[in-house]
Amino acid sequence: MGDLRDAVELIKDKFYWMPLARGRTVSSSATTVYFCTDDKFQYEPFNQDFGPLTLGMTWRYCKLVEHQLSSTAHRQTRLVHFCSSDPRDRANTAVLAAAYLVVVLGRSAEEAWAPFAHVQPPFQPYRDASGGRCTYRMTIYDCLQGLAYAMKLGWFDYSNFNIAEYEQYGSVEGGDANWIVPGKFLAFAGPFPSNRDDDNFPVFTPEDYVPIFRTLGIHLVVRLNHVQYDRNRFVDHGVRHMDLIFPDGSCPPKNVIDNFLS
Q: Quick check: 260 pLDDT over 80?
């Protein structure tokens, strides 16, 4: 039997999460199978942010663990998800493991968080994507609550989640867009007037987004930050457009929030 003295038991005698101390190594045996996702699922930061991982990665992780636990070869073994001792890896992998409990096993956010609640050292909280001082912290428990509530509202359906569409539109090459409320509210990267940004990276113009919006049923664009393109490049293609401008990275004032929600 493997040494699991530092492991968090998630499913009794079956599924564990464990940070690996620097210099320590593990190897699978007939009774214990170890796996690591530190390199497989990686967050792409904007600034000082480090996670949590995307919904697509969460879905893929759940499928991975589900397959491992149901595999005939592993039915009599314990499955251990281990990670490095880096605070970022600890947080991101703990979210994934706890998310499996919520998504696949139907546990509440409270139940999924309970095994991790007294882990030492405490998990590093998440922060916003700015480079300045963060005035709030988002915890693993916050993430689990959001995930559970999204499932309750039907915004995330594990069984019918379209991973191909999610990853296609979520990529920079596919539009850098994600549903916030499926079928209702799509967030996407602000278009540029030409297909290259100031650093010569490829970007989307309004005309590039038009066929995507037609496919997804998007009829209104709300521009929130920089005025970088002519709004008529959407309007001329039948997509309505409005501006609710406020400084990028800041909290919008109340009148902007009220107008946006209305």
A: yes
